[in-house]
Sequence to fold (305 residues):
Amino acid sequence: MPTVTSHDGVKLHYEEAGSGRADRPAVLFVHEFAGDWRSWETQMRYFSRNYRCITYSARGYLPSDVPKSVDSYSQDHWREDVFSMIQGLKLDRPHVVGLSMGAMATLHFGMKYCTKGSPLKARSLTLAGVGSGAHPATFDDFQKSSRANAEFIRKNGMKEFAATYGHGGTRLQYLRKDPRGFAEYIGQLTEHSKEGSANTMEGYQGRRPSLYALTDVIGRIDVPVLILTGDEDEPCLEASVMLKRLIPQAGLAMLAQAGHGINLEEPALFNQLLEDFFLRAEAGTWGARDPRSAAASIWGPTGKP
Fold:
């Protein structure tokens, strides 16, 4: 199996498709908590027609290594795993596309490796379903529930966890639209490592910092950014708007009557928006927001009145 070794020796399994063109960057996909490398199959099949595409299973997700220590699952580890994939596969400024927890890793990667004055390590960043639990009003509860979920997984296993967490309020839209696809998603979630999932919940989800404490560095990201959210993905709405306001080259697209896993729930629209973004980022026509268009708002840039 093809693997890349991370900064701390964890072997990360990856799959790739397509060879792309010399004038086009590769695309690196970073999955969510409830997914793994297979979550991006619809995107891999579509974008590999014109791009070299890579998807990988994060640490704790089979067939990648499952570290024993909870401390091996921090936000910093996930961020550096994105960098390790780029470095290990010798990718020249790829498009990096993350969903949910993968979007958080992509955002933190951008904060370190794609800021003004630094050598830029990505051509663009896509943040889909980003920001669950980030808002100050929900941050403490999110961390507590993440730690509780970790204990639930350790006690009850992945099958029972998938039957509860997997059917949450931001997933029901997918179930309604595509029962077969939803069943596949639940089946794959059930197959995840119990130890890896519990450690990820506790070490990453339960300890990551609030985005609202990082607004200064977020605002220094200096590459094109596409933010995607479903309009029924309640935990991500405020954070998505906040990030749009903060990042100079950010654009925000909201998918109607859509939940959290939008790359699976609305694959055709997701791919269309992503492809248009890639082409504009490559052509240099995405650009930064004209300051004159940022009309006065009743909210500050961090979402506070």
About this structure: The chain has a mean pLDDT of 95. The domain at 3-135+210-288 is CATH 3.40.50.1820 (Rossmann fold). Residues 242 and 303 are 6 Å apart (CA to CA). The first helix runs from residue 41 to 47.
